[in-house]
Amino acid sequence: MVNANKVKGTRYESAVRDHALERRHKAFRPAQAGAGDLGDIHISGLMALQCKDVTSWSVSGWLQDVEDQRQRAGLPLGAVVMKKRRASIGDSYVVMTYDTLLTMLQRLELAETFVQADPHVRANWERTSRDRGNHIRNDSA
Q1: Cβ distance 14 to 3 under 8 Å?
Q2: Which of 18, 26, 21 is nearest to 46 (CA)?
Q3: pTM of the model
Q4: Which of 19, 27, 62, 118 has the fewest CB within 10 Å, making it most exposed?
C-alpha cells in the first residue's frame, strides 16, 4: 500500500528541486539512506535542504535533522523549506539557524568582494544572474 504522506512529501521535494533548477541552480535529490540521510535536496554543492509539506510544524527538530544531514553530506549550509498553503513553490518558507544565516552572509560578502574587484567578473555575474531570472539591485548606479 502506498503511503499518501510519503507521496505528498516526495512531490513537494521534487517541486522544490525543479524550482531551483528552473532558476538555474544545480539541485538534486540525493539517495535516501535511512540513518545516513543526507537531506532531501542539495543545492549548488552548498546547502542541504529538508522539505516539509505538513500542517503541523516541528521546526526545532527539523533544524537539528537538517544540521545532522548537512554535516553528513559535508555541506556548509542547511535549511528547512516549508510549504506555504495555496502558494507557489517560490513562496515557501525557509527556516535556518541564525548562525547558518551569518555563515551564508560571510560567504556572500566574500563573493561580492571578488565580483566587485574585477569589472569583467561583475559583468559576467550580472549577465548570468539575469539569465537565472534573479533580480539584481544595483546600488552603485
Answers
A1: no
A2: 26
A3: 0.79
A4: 118
Per the CB < 8 A criterion, the answer to whether 75 and 47 are in contact is yes
How far apart, in whole angstroms, are the C-alpha atoms of residue 136 and residue 101?
20
Pairing of strands 27-28, 93-95: unpaired
Distance from C-alpha of 14 to C-alpha of 9, rounded to nearest angstrom = 9
CA angle 117, 129, 18 (to 5 degrees): 140
Contact at 8 Å (CB) between 69 and 39? yes
Average pLDDT over residues 123-141: 62
Residue 121: predicted pLDDT: 75
Instruction: Name the grid cell of 129.
Output: 544572474
E runs forming strands in 23-115? 27-28, 41-43, 47-52, 77-82, 93-95
Instruction: Say whether 14 sits in a helix, a strand or coil.
Output: helix
Q: Give the pLDDT confidence score for residue 141 in this predicted structure.
A: 39
d(CA 101, CA 128): 24
